[in-house]
Amino acid sequence: MQIRDIRATTVTVPLEAPLRHANGCHWGRFVRTIVEVETDNGLIGLGEMGGGGESAEAVFRALKTTLVGHDPARLEEMRFRVANPTASLYNNRTQVLAALEFACLDILGQAWGVPVSEILGGRLRERVRFATYAFFRYPDPRTGTGEVRTIDQMVAAVGEWKRRFGFTTHKLKAGVFPPDYELEVYRAIAAAFPGDSLRFDPNGVWSAEQAIRFGQAIEGLRNDYLEDPVYGMNGMRRTRQMIRVPLATNTVVVNFEQLAANVFDTAVDVILLDTTFWGGIRECVKAAAVCDTFQLGVAVHSSGELGIQLATMLHLGAVIPNLSFAADAHYHHLTDDIIEGGLMRYENGAIRVPDGPGLGVRLNRDKLREYAELYKRLGGYPYDQDPARPGWAPVLPNDRWADPSDGRPVKIPY
Ligand SMILES: [Mg+2]
To answer: How many CA atoms lie within 13 Å of 4's alpha carbon, on the beta-carbon side?
Structure first.
């Protein structure tokens, strides 16, 4: 089998409401580049890439000459062609490699008549559990609904997501408002859902001292972990020495060099594996094995996904033995998807691992066209900007918090 063509289409798919985070905002929609890799025997494998609100079409177009004629089964060879570590100082293509790996695994699964999970060692579970990914949100620019800013709004929103999707683990995405306010919000969620487990992620914008103060304050709660309270292994290590809550990261351990450093001098307890950030599903499986060896925890990270990338997360979650936590997904904030059948469904807080060959998802071409048109109309958005605070940028450690009492309407183009 040989690769004959590579196509990329940028889409933008609406969210229920804009999602606020420590670095800015998802402006009411995700921008994703959908990749199609076609082989000489007519199979089409699907990949997906994010990119902080921007299109990545150009890089896939540029790689076509490198990859036409390549055997999609030669994944290690492709890794060196696309993302050779010694060349990556100039062109870091880790996420590009990931999208191509998804597509090639999808092709192999179709060619061999098996789901991707069976290529990766075989599934240990049929369903992957997910956490409520609870964001502070601006109101939907189209309807003015969906705001999550106050404590009452957050508790009501978590209750609604729990009722609709069955979640029993709640992750609060924080780092937006002053830490003491977010502590109140976190405690309110804990009090409202006492049987459920919790996790908190301020995206690394605190000082180590703030992280220690917060970590000590939440010690009595049912925490899975405290995620990236501070940016940098040394800050994480200092925090870890002073609190009795496990620490997790998706920022300071995202490659094997950093994983090795964390094994030699542990700064983080739980490694959040992202099929995109690590350069593919297979790299995550390898990293999970290292974590298993050194008895570090793992969970599945979400960098914002449509159904193709969600499928990669499900196949990953199905095959790693040491998945002891619910996975993260932004997926329940989406209003639609570009795959056949529409949005995948949650059952009791979990999503079934697709059974079909390959990734087990197929493109709905009408939806692809519709959301490609929407992208042409709206363009990208700056992931690291806040639409309500033009010119704002957080510093590290941050002290430029948003004001939780500020409920003024925000103009977000749609
Ligand atoms: Mg995180």
So the answer is: 10
Q: Which helix (H) or strand (E) holds 185?
A: helix 179-192
Instruction: Establish whether 301 is a catalytic residue.
Output: yes
Q: How far is the CA of 207 from the centre of ligand 1 (A)?
A: 16
Domain spanning 119-363 has what CATH number?
3.20.20.120
**In this structure, are residues 202 and 229 in contact, taking their beta carbons and an 8 Å threshold?**
yes
Distance CA 247, CA 44 (A): 40
Could you tell me which residues come within 8 angstroms of residue 25 by beta carbon, excluding any fewer than 6 positions away? 18, 19, 138, 383, 385, 386, 387
Rounded to the nearest whole angstrom, what is the distance from the C-alpha of residue 22 to the centroid of ligand 1? 10
Q: Are 41 and 25 in contact (CB under 8 A)?
A: no
- Tell whether pTM > 0.90: yes
Length of the chain in terms of residues written: 414
Distance in Å, CA 201 to ligand 1 centroid: 6
> How much is the pLDDT for 51?
81
What is the architecture, at CATH level 2, of domain 3-117+366-377? 2-Layer Sandwich (3.30)
Q: Which of 301, 330, 333, 367 is catalytic?
A: 301
Q: What residue type is assigned to position 341 of the chain?
A: G
Give the distance from CA 394 to its chain's centroid. Answer: 21
Whole-number Å distance between alpha carbons of 365 and 371: 10
Angle between helices 256-264 and 233-242 (to 10 degrees): 40
Residues forming a β-bridge with 230: 205, 206
Domain residue limits, the chain: 3-117+366-377, 119-363
| pLDDT band, residue 74 (cuts 50/70/90) | very high
- Write down the catalytic residue from 26, 171, 173, 367: 173
Question: Is the bond leading into 194 cis (omega within 30 degrees of zero)?
Answer: no
Q: What percent of the chain has pLDDT over 70?
A: 100
| pLDDT (tens digit per residue) in 101-146 | 999 999 999 999 999 999 999 999 999 999 999 999 999 988 999 9
Is residue 333 part of the annotated active site? The answer reads no
Model pLDDT for residues 377-407, shown as the tens digit of each residue = 999 999 999 999 999 999 999 999 999 999 9
